[in-house]
# Entry
Amino acid sequence: MGNQAKLSADGKDYEFPVLSGSVGPDVVDIRKLYGQSGLFTFDPGFTSTASCESALTYIDGEEGVLLHRGYPIGQLAEHSSFMEVSYLLLNGELPSKDELDTFTYTISRHTMLHEQLLQFYRGFRRDAHPMAVMCGVVGALSAFYHDSTDISDPEHRTISSHRLIAKMPTIAAAAYKYAIGQPFLYPDNSLSYTGNFMRMTFGVPAEPYDLHPAVEKAMDRIFILHADHEQNASTSTVRLAGSSGANPFACIAAGIACLWGPAHGGANEAALNMLHEIGTPDKIPHYIERAKDKNDPFRLMGFGHRVYKNYDPRATVMQKTVREVFDALKVDNPVFETALRLEEIALSDDYFVEKKLFPNVDFYSGIILSAIGFPTTMFTVLFALARTVGWVAQWNEMISDPHQKIGRPRQLYTGPTQRDYVAIDKR
Ligand code: CMC
# Structure
């Protein structure tokens, strides 16, 4: 018999198995708690709850470690490509050259959208936030690709996964084109996954698009950095939506909706807006004081993380990538100096040190994306595009698990107990 955890409540003792993963904290298996004791656990925000078993991504927040299928994010960002990381997340192992070529080719065969889906965009107001468009258009995919929505069929699951990964750049680029009033561009499958997205976003039908190799590489790396992140809010949303048997297109649309919030994927947009608001380094102390003031809702955006209590390893790569993009594009932006100074001041301030608040992935990403030419409203869209791979891999892992059940949390009820209905003239 392995380790057991003991609980005493109302004079009775209960024992629960303690399960171990390959690395990371053990978990107390409390699945029989309610049946045996009539008690629930209470953990709003899931700060101490493992919601599932997963073999995809591991984070050690104290040490600032992020591994995909065992490979450190720094190594993947440096040596791999987004297509290769996608294959790794979906299949568990790095591909051989042939496997990678076949996977990349397969994805490239699904990049076009159903022509009628393009009509869908015209129903949105021109000034709609592109994330609103993403929620709608991705949700609508299930109305166009019925032939891959039988989730009990592994072949259908594979096709819909490939479709989602392949179509997301086309959908995201079209959301941008619609907002600025330019014609949609069809995919060019002779380009890389990321190069194709850059062309569909920044190219125009009237002229050839000049793809900058260093920028294409930086963008690909940004996609790698956002590909997956364990059981974060949007991934948990995708899993919960999928646990009911909903089709994958609807589940990913749910993930996009969750990602939009400023505490999650919306933070990169909020972080750059904040840096612009701060403006020059001399204003930093004022904003640091505001962030520390409990009566002021202001927070340093791009700072702090539920899991990382150390430097987010993705932020390290992002910071390096800012310099590379600036050098490649021969641009400079004083906002980067403000960001570096803000980080320095915050990391030497007792408030941030004691609460272990470090820059996260979103702190520097906005500076790079803005230098490349994306408006702030597109930042979270790019996050969604890349995270689609993680969502799809996590969804597949869940559906293929024979023990999978619908996700159905319980609650601590604090409302009125049963009472009798009172007629309207007696209230
Ligand atoms: N600025 C100032 N104070 C902060 C910040 C911040 N950015 N983040 C956390 N704190 C304080 C917070 O006020 C609290 O203080 P106290 O214990 O005195 O009440 C303490 O630190 C713990 O914060 P929390 O909100 O209880 O922690 P959480 O784990 O629930 O929230 C978070 C994590 C990421 C939502 C939060 O740190 C935050 O709002 N950060 C800014 C938004 C942001 O950058 N989000 C991107 C996250 S990374 C990308 C992604 O996953 O999507």
